[in-house]
């Protein structure tokens, strides 16, 4: 009889739990690679399609807005269809706009394709849900943070890799206008490959797929809307808006900021923007690991205090980044706020699985959607013709610090049945 793992051996592919662990973060990685694939190419796209600052801002908002609704729906689908079917269907449908965005030849069509591509950002919810099914409560925070961090890495790696793919296509004799279009075929193909791996090598639960273990019969799919009255859900939603919302905003605007403010080339700007995302290889996992350690010693209250602390440091780092007068200072401050931002991501989802164990998918979806809502709201600052990027970063830093105080006064406690489940696993 398979069961949830109580230890995480990241170098293992043994058992359905670890196979699922690696395939689900890889699915998340590839989706984010496709979702942000256009961001480092925006200097070229902006020039070719003659986009204004406001129009660029609108495309950023569109790419994030679609994910808000998609994350809410995906969370529910994971509860009903199971994460395996949900992931495969998302990959197949989501690959279409990634392949076809190259057909855009004006602002309106480009905007609509970015809106459609945004749906694949909901892949995060599947990963967090699926990881929660495979690991015991004592290691859930760490496992969720590692899969979340390595998946988020796709948003950083794409900033580094897509300009190289673009340059290689230009080097092969194609124009810049053709190159950015052909470059997007790469993430589309990767999504189809991962869909096949997900279908073939993962299961919904350690004991089998939903239809094999009768999950739907023993877990009725009626939505428990009472979770909407739980203040803790909304505190975590705001927290995630401040950390993950800022992350996807930075992934979208970093290249343009470095090009416009420090006059870097598209490839150099993509490299530094990629360094920000590359920190996910350890920083989000670090947030989850520390959350589990603190939780083991100080309980849910300790997890809440940790989240408030790293959010506060993220906000302070953002303000320093905004005031950086040269590239060196900007890079150093970027690395500092990136560390605490990504730790905040991990610390948030170190708490999420314990809020309501019967509705993990819904809670995960709501909090995840909050991240995108934050990203969308921040997008309005960056499209404004009266607010500079520097001012936008400053305003966001202040807002993050305010939210950290809200998290500080929120009392996080484990649900009774979650406590019992944890005691049984650890017994």
Structure description:
This protein has helices spanning 15-35, 42-49, 53-80, 83-100, 107-117, 123-134, 137-171, 176-183, 185-201, 210-213, 215-218, 231-262, 266-278, 283-322, 327-348, 360-383, 389-409, 416-426. By secondary structure, it is mostly helical. Helix 4 runs antiparallel to helix 6 (123-134). The chain crosses the membrane at residues 21-42, 54-74, 86-105, 111-129, 150-174, 180-199, 231-250, 270-290, 302-321, 327-348, 360-382, 388-410. Residues 20-415 form the Major facilitator superfamily (MFS) profile domain. Keywords: Membrane, Nitrate assimilation, Transmembrane, Transmembrane helix. Its main location: membrane.
List keywords for this structure.
427 residues; mainly alpha; 77% helix; 0% strand
Describe the structure concisely.
It is a multi-pass membrane protein. It contains 18 helices and no strands.
Q: Estimate what percentage of residues fall within beta strands.
A: under 5%
How much helix is in the residues? over 70%
Taking all Cα atoms into account, the compactness measure Rg is 20 Å
Q: Please work out how many helical segments DSSP would assign.
A: 18
N/C terminus separation: 17 Å
H/E element sequence: HHHHHHHHHHHHHHHHHH
- Average per-residue pLDDT, rounded, comes to 91
Oligomer: single chain
Decide which structural class fits the backbone: mainly alpha
Low-confidence sequence ranges? none
Tally of strands: 0
Basic shape: globular
Largest sheet: none
List the helices and strands and how they pair.
Layout: H1 15-35, H2 42-49, H3 53-80, H4 83-100, H5 107-117, H6 123-134, H7 137-171, H8 176-183, H9 185-201, H10 210-213, H11 215-218, H12 231-262, H13 266-278, H14 283-322, H15 327-348, H16 360-383, H17 389-409, H18 416-426
